[in-house]
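To fix ideas at the outset, we first show an illustrative case, written as a sequence plus integers encoding its fold:
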Amino acid sequence: MAANAIFSQLPSIVSTKDTISLSSASSFAFSGQSLPSSSVSPVSFPAIRRRISCQANSSAISSLLTPVNEKANSGLKDFLHISDFDKATILNILDRAKEVKALIKSGERTYLPFKGKTMAMIFAKPSMRTRVSFETGFYLLGGHAIYLGPEDIQMGKREGTRDVARVLSRYNDIIMARVFAHQDILDLAKCASVPVINGLTDYNHPCQIMADALTMIEHIGQLEGTKVVYVGDGNNIVHSWLLLASVIPFHFVCACPKGFEPDKETVQKARQTGISKIEITHDPKEAVIGADVVYSDVWASMGQKEEAAYRRQVFQGFQVDEGLMKLAGPKAYFMHCLPAERGVEVTDGVIEAPNSIVFPQAENRMHAQNAIMLHVLGV
């Protein structure tokens, strides 16, 4: 069963009252040749809070359930959740990421598919990697990116999301947003007439996981059939791994303290696809045995810093140190989405070890995102 048919709902952290219909289809062109295209059926995602209308005079809920066809009719797409796409599409995007990366690495500077195009980058949450990777990548492929920081727009406060979406769509060819509430990215995509890319929300981080998948393919040779063990908080990174596991088969384990598990509905939906083996455990030492990748993230994400001291106590025993990596085995790689608090969730020695691929992983943010942007723009 396709993952898209299963993922009819987001987790319990969201309301099930209002939904938005998203659809995706893939079409690739590289070096003048078209890659296979595939399409998947629409999938509904509930709202985190009351959905807004894109039309000032519309208040009927039914109007919010009707897909905006402008993007679909023009072949443009959004990139909001990995599970919006089927396996073939995800693998094609990753293949294209490798091709474009090779071009950039070779010094090729005549491939400019984004020439004459602009991208608006909305940052409710600041980030070094997200800003630099998107801005540099878009520039290297011929485009111009505009940074809009937390004080530039104040989306939803100074100006409504529906107005921001429609205004920016008239100035730009694509919008990337890094926000707190997942509802904000859904509202933005609903009202924008250009593609919207999810640069991170409190619920998921699809661009990061695409970069992670690319990195695993480069170093292990494949993603399918591997064992990925995440050690730490069941956060938006874990949700994104679960969404990927609903599309591509691999063994995913989340080892976290009790009370810090990922969203139950997201776990359940990923398991119901029957595509991947998924485990949630509270024993990191047992979890990492036989891992191809041991993955970590900060214990207190942005917006949780007031909990940092408490979390350090609760998460004792979940630090990725040299002993844990030894249990994983000599072939296990270490990955971290960064920024890292060295000496907290991971030791300095693990990050700097020969089997750490943290920095190739960080670089691949740009290459994976370039391929995502090419895909959603249909170029």
